[in-house]
Amino acid sequence: MSRAAIFFATGFEEIEALTVVDVLRRGGVAADMVSVTGEREVTGSHGITVKTDKLFAEADLETADILVLPGGMPGTTNLEAYEPLMDKVDEFYRKGKYIAAICAAPSIFGHKGILQGRRACSNPGFESHLEGADVKREEAVVDGTVITSRGMGTAIPFALAILEQFAGAEAAAQMKEKLVYQA
Fold first, then answer.
1. Cα 124–chain centre separation
2. 182 within a domain of the structure (yes/no)
């Protein structure tokens, strides 16, 4: 079974994080909610507190197939400031493993130089941070092992794009139908 690690920092965008967890779990991909705060309970940017599955120190990221960074503010800033996670993002990218980010979080990839020559998207207010990218206005963009998306309103297409990489196009299409998602 494929495994995803979705990271939660104080101020995360609730819909972006939880939609990915929900869609992946429904689609048969193990999805670990991982806190980078040192506490299992993490409060999002709209005051919703979520109990995560694991603390960063407890997560076996060697078994993960993808790292997922939700957006939100100051969640994105807090993720980028957490050096152990940034080290893992660098490692996954170097190894050709999947990394994904939505809303403001693709800016992290831009700051790291990961988007050089790649197609990518983000929240419109963060497009200037997609350094070196061919910026798209699509709901979700998959370029090699880097997946990006624009924001809360594109959380379902983002989650489906991730699901497609690990469960196949047919599974993603079936999930889209089950969710009654209409683009």
1. 17
2. no
